[in-house]
Amino acid sequence: MKQKIALLLFISPFFGFKGQSQILKNLLGSSSNSPVPSNEILIQNFRTDLQELVQNKYNSRLMGTTGYKNLSGHLEKRMQQLGLIRYGTVGYRSTFKYPVGRQLSVESKFYVEGKALHMNKDVLPMPFAPTEDNNAYLIPKVNEAHAPWTLPLPNDNITESNIARLLKPTILNAQERGANAIYFYDDRTGSTLDLKEFEFKGVDIDPDIHIPVWVIAKKAWTDNFKNVYSVIPINTSQRYKTTYDEGYNIVGLIDNKAEKTVLVMADYDQVIFEHDNNNPGANATASGVTLMLQLSHILKAPEFKTYNYAFAAFSGSAKGQLGAKSFLSIPDIKAKIAYVVDLNAVGKLNPQNEIFINGVGSSVRFRSAIKEVSEGYTPKVGEKYPYNASFNAFIDSDLPTLSFSTGYPAKLSGEDNISSINFNGMAQTLRFVVAVMTKVNQGGTVTFAKNNIEVKDQDLVIQKAPPAPPVAKTPKTVSPKEPSSAQKLAQAKNNLKNNSAQSSIKPQNNKPATVAKLPVEEPYLGASNIVVDFLGIGINELDKREGGAVIQSVSTNSRGAQLGFQSGDVLLQIGSFPIFNAKSYLMTLEKFKTGERAYYKVKKADGKTVMVDVNFD
């Protein structure tokens, strides 16, 4: 205990904000043998991190804001406090660029009969149209295929925010009819349209528009086009430059000197709702980051040393998974990743304990691992994410990926503030995630399923078969208890006193009745965790007895029944793989592919061993 107190006194100066030292005290003070602390400790830790993440000072965690940059710095401090190794380009931080808008370049030109018109005063190219030069001969108000068109602006109140929406239908129609450029002119009575007011800071190219689009101010149209009925040479150069800002990934590492690394990830910028008092995103993104930070404590336990663990807070998912794609661009990074665990919107566990899991079909190992720990939970194939989630980038890169969620709040039907979070549910969700990771780690190498295995909800839960009738126990011989020395002495004295012929106490010899010997002892039923395999053979996955896997049940009319398997048979070997117990049998099944054949070595009730030819189809 003195060592723990000394450690806390040593590290406390490094904690940059109130409450974080209490988290470490809770974890150091946990007396449980489990690497997962009690729910009481977890809930206190969750509250501390979540209350910080939803602060107004982080400006809704929107990319590009000062609040977003401040939150990135906060996450760096948290990873330092957690004792994680720096795994970024600079410290814990890796920077990537993302486009924030387009700015008009001085290289843009518009010439009418060799006369240059002024940008932002007489004419203005639209930034949502492609950059392209156009040299043509124009007859105003005469529109033909393979030539520029002049079209009047609509009579709407045109602003910078609505001009793209108002013009797009007309542009697409003209484009389809053969126009190779469009000049919208302002000839509206009483128009006050001023092109100087258009800055277009956050406009992207519209992928549906393939030709240059210009707007001509009213005076420039009147002076240069309106009363001209002859051919006019036009030369245009439309130039915009894309402007960029910086985004950040924050990544820390537990280095166990293993060959492969498990990536635990969460998105930390706000991607679902605009920030307001009722929707600060406590569930949407903040809850996932909170769970990820807590996992970094737990995965330091000795039982998880099979892999290294990288903890990544990504941003930019709503802008095409920019953060995740930037991470994947690191040389050789994909070869280092064993599998990926994504946490997002994990603060809303319902009374049915429904946990939605995306990516189950990305590896054969995932389905069985989830099923093994599903007792008490309702795992379901993941619902569709309401945004372009970062974890999809890893599946698209052929990496086995699991994404956990407990659902998303709708802005119109509920609030997403900290008071709406189910903290006890977050603790239960974390336990489920840890249990799944434990089973995945125990199953050996995790490989990507290129054909994306089809998985249904019922494939993720244990289908409980009725327990097999109990097998009669062999009566045990009851041996008489040997008298103690004191008892023998007392009896001898009594015999002498009463002149009894008996000189000692003789044990009784109660012979047991003759009973037929059974091939196995009574099946271990545990919590009725019966797993029924593709043959219809029921195996109790909790049965840890060595010497083979005991068949608990055989489904009627199943392939197993047709092949002669019976309840009580003991499976000793499949092909060249020996079967040690029930768990060994279930794991061995995963080694065989569809279409392969193997002999089952089976010990029958009479003690004889038989070989059964089985086709894995």
Short description:
By secondary structure, the protein is an alpha+beta fold. The chain has helices spanning 2-11, 20-28, 39-53, 66-81, 163-176, 218-226, 282-298, 322-328, 333-336, 364-372, 391-396, 423-442, 485-497, 559-562, 582-589, and strands spanning 85-86, 93-104, 109-112, 115-116, 123-125, 133-138, 148-152, 181-185, 213-216, 232-237, 240-254, 261-267, 308-314, 337-343, 354-358, 378-381, 401-405, 530-532, 537-540, 549-554, 570-574, 577-578, 597-603, 609-615. The chain has three domains: 29-99 and 249-460, Zn peptidases (Aminopeptidase); 106-238, Glucose Oxidase, domain 1, CATH 3.50.30.30; 530-615, PDZ domain (Pdz3 Domain, Roll), CATH 2.30.42.
Q: CATH homologous superfamily of the largest domain?
A: Zn peptidases
Q: In terms of per-residue confidence, which ranges show pLDDT below 50 for 5 or more consecutive residues? A: 1-31, 499-527
Number of strands: 24
Give the helix tally.
15
Span between N and C termini? 58 Å
- Classify the beta-strand content into a percent band: 15-25%
CATH class of the largest domain: Alpha Beta
Q: CATH fold name of the largest domain, please?
A: Aminopeptidase
Structural class, please?
Answer: alpha+beta
How many domains would you count in the coordinates?
A: 3
Tell me the Rg in angstroms. Answer: 36 Å
Largest sheet: 9 strands, mixed
Helix content: 25-40%
- Give the overall average pLDDT: 83
Structural shape: elongated
Query: Mind telling me which CATH architecture of the largest domain this is?
Result: 3-Layer(aba) Sandwich
